[in-house]
Amino acid sequence: MVEDLAIVIVDDMQYSRAVLRTTLNRIGYTDVRMAASASEALAMMSDRRAEVVLADWVMPEMNGLELTAAIRQKDEERGHYTALILFTGKEGDEAMMEAFSHGVDDYLTKPVNQVQLAARVYAAGRIARLQNTVLETSAALAATNRQLEYLSTTDPLTGLPNRRALDKRMESTILETQGRGGAVCLGILDVDHFKQINDHYGHDIGDEVLVVLAKRLRLALRPMDMVARMGGEEFALVAHFQKAEHCDPGIFERVLRTVSEESIPTSEGEIPVTVSIGVCCYRHGEEMQTIQSMTRVADQNLYQAKEQGRNRVVG
Ligand code: GH3
Ligand code: MG
Ligand code: MG
Ligand code: MG
C-alpha cells in the first residue's frame, strides 16, 4: 500500500487527465483532483493544497512552466512546498533541461509509462514531505526565537522593555547621536516613598501602582521615545532628537506633572504618587558619552532630586 498523497492533475486534454487518474487510483492514490487549465489548478490548490502536481507542459493560456512559477511563488508566500512533475510530448535533452531550470522536480515524456509514473509520484511525494517538514520545523524555530526575544527583552509585570532592551536602545541611540547628529536624553525616574505604599497597602497594590504608572509614562512620551523598567520602582526614559538644537529636557517636566496631576487608581482606591527624575542629555559634538557615563550622571541628578525634596527633575 502506498501512503496517500494530495495530487492534482492539470491537462487541457480530458482523455489524458482521465488516463492518469485511473492509473493513480489503481496504484492506490485516492485523493486525485483534476483541472483542465493552470488557473483552475491554482484555484483548486488555494482551496486545499496539493502535495504533488502533475502538469502538462503545453496548454493554452498558462503553460506548465508558467504554472510552476506561480505555484513556487504561492508556496513561498505560504511556507509550503509542492512537488511538481511536468509531462510532455516534447522530446530531447534540451526540453528536459528547460523544464528543470524552471524549477520542476521531475519530468516525464508522453505517453506516460505506468511503472515510471508510479515511481516518480512516489519520489515526488517524498520530496514534498521532506521539504514541508523542513519548512514547518524552521517556522516553529522562528516562532520560538521571536518568543525568546520577547521574553528576554520585556518586563513581565508592566510589559515595558526591560534593562536589556534599554541598554540596546541606548547604545544605538548614542552611536547615532555621535555619528549622524541630534541629541539623546536619558531620564532615570524613581517613585517617591514607594516603600510607604508597599508598607501601607501591601506589595500587590504596589504592583498595581507600577502597572498604571508604566502606562502613564508610555502615554506621556512620544511613540519613538523609550520607556523601560530598570527594576524595582525605577524607570528609564530615553528621548532622541533629530537635531541637537531641538533637544528638550523639558519633556521630563511634563512627565513629572502627568504623574502627579492625577492619583493612581488601584483596587484599594486612588493613591497619590509623585516621582523624581534625574536627567543626562548628550548632544552631537559634545564630549563623547557612554551608557555608563550617562547613567552615572542621571543617577547623580536623581539623588540630587531626592535630596532637594523629591517630586522634581534635576539635570
Ligand atoms: P525614595 O523616595 O527615596 O525613592 O523612597 P522609596 O521608598 O521609594 O525607596 P526605596 O528604594 O527605599 O524603596 C523602594 C521599594 O520598592 C523597596 C522595594 O520593596 C519596592 N519594590 C521593588 N520592586 C518592587 C516590585 O516589583 N513591586 C513592588 N510592589 N515593590 C517593589
Ligand atoms: Mg496540452
Ligand atoms: Mg529606588
Ligand atoms: Mg523610590
UniProtKB/TrEMBL annotation:
Single Gene Ontology MF annotation: diguanylate cyclase activity
Ranges where the Response regulatory domain occurs: 6-125
Reaction equations catalysed: 2 GTP = 3',3'-c-di-GMP + 2 diphosphate
Domain of life (superkingdom): Bacteria
A Pfam family this chain is assigned to: Response_reg
EC code(s) of this entry: 2.7.7.65
Record keywords: Phosphoprotein
Name of this protein: diguanylate cyclase
GO biological-process terms attached to the record: phosphorelay signal transduction system
Residues in GGDEF domain copies: 182-315
Entry cofactors: Mg(2+)
Statement: the UniProt record of this protein carries the keyword Phosphoprotein: yes
InterPro entries linked to this entry: CheY-like_superfamily (IPR011006), Diguanylate_Cyclase (IPR050469), GGDEF_dom (IPR000160), Nucleotide_cyclase (IPR029787), Rev_trsase/Diguanyl_cyclase (IPR043128), Sig_transdc_resp-reg_receiver (IPR001789)
Originating species: Thioalkalivibrio denitrificans
EC primary class: transferase
Chain positions with 4-aspartylphosphate modification: 56
